[in-house]
Write a structure and sequence with these properties.
single chain; 8 strands; 15% strand; 11 helices; eight-stranded mixed sheet
């Protein structure tokens, strides 16, 4: 089995619609794909309706968190999307995205960059707006060559000249909410240092004590040394180890299925989840 547990659609900051995502996942030879858009479940219905036969969909989300001034992301799998406490927190985070992005536009304007809010809205196309949409605007204007090049201290990285904070959940609280909604919590790309500061292992240990299920190890932003260190930490803390592409369509160079999760780990994730079940494909529409 080929299992990719971290993918984005146009419901947040990917460039594939949810329907295109599942079709492309099947074409890439995946058996299981997870839809994990940022702080939203809006893409579920479209992805399920288009799900090809032979492909299983894991519903999820990537939740925005912050601890000690450091941003991080928590992957939530197979939770009940209507559970009130987690739903309220997702809405709180999502509602803060628009004023945050508008604040980044204002800072860029002050720096002499002629980006407009209308441009960012057009790029987001109704999705959950975020920094990648602002980064894409910078690419359109020729300010930076790629989206990744916008995530530097010069521009949009944490603490960068155009960075604006938003409401983000404490990771231990996020874990509590995910578990309360019957889901499984996995810390996304914990050693992705090029995105900004990363949390120390002591914080991961605190998250493990709070009920964290696993950490994402095999990821494009982790070199071999980081993966080896994270595998050792996972073993020490009794955490599951996942791998995934963090696919964003054409917004990133990584392809679907570039990194995958072991079938036994996937089986354990589905065993632990009580909020939802994987959806088997029925041929799509």
């Amino acid at each position: 089995m080929r299992i990719d547990l971290h993918c984005h659609s146009t419901a947040s900051d990917g460039t594939d619609t949810p329907a295109e995502l599942v079709r492309n996942a099947a074409a890439a030879g995946l058996d299981v794909v997870a839809l994990t858009d940022h702080d939203t479940t809006r893409g579920y219905a479209e992805a399920i309706a288009a799900l090809p036969e032979g492909l299983t969909l894991v519903t999820g989300a990537e939740l925005s968190c912050r601890v000690d001034g450091i941003s991080l992301h928590m992957l939530a799998y197979l939770f009940d999307p209507e559970e009130p406490a987690l739903l309220a927190e997702r809405e709180l985070v999502r509602d803060d995205r628009v004023p945050r992005a508008q604040g980044m536009v204002a800072k860029l304007n002050a720096l002499g960059v002629p980006v407009t809010w209308e441009q960012v809205e057009r790029i987001a196309a109704g999705g959950s707006v975020g920094r990648p949409h602002v980064a894409s605007a910078l690419v359109e204007l020729g300010v930076v060559p790629t989206v990744s090049d916008a995530f530097t201290e010069e521009w949009l990285a944490d603490g960068g000249r155009a960075f604006v904070e938003k409401h983000e959940t404490d990771p231990c609280e996020a874990i509590r909410l995910i578990k309360g909604a019957g889901g499984v919590a996995v810390f996304a790309h914990p050693a992705a240092a090029k995105r900004g500061r990363t949390v120390p292992e002591s914080v991961i240990a605190e998250m493990a004590a709070a009920g964290l299920d696993g950490i994402e190890v095999d990821h494009m932003d982790h070199d071999l040394d980081a993966r080896a260190r994270l595998r050792g930490l996972a073993k020490e803390l009794g955490l599951l180890v996942t791998g995934s592409s963090d696919y964003h369509g054409s917004r990133k160079t990584v392809s679907l299925g570039a990194y995958t999760t072991d079938p036994e780990v996937y089986g354990e994730i589905t065993r632990r989840a009580t909020g939802a079940f994987p959806v088997p494909g029925a041929g799509g529409i």
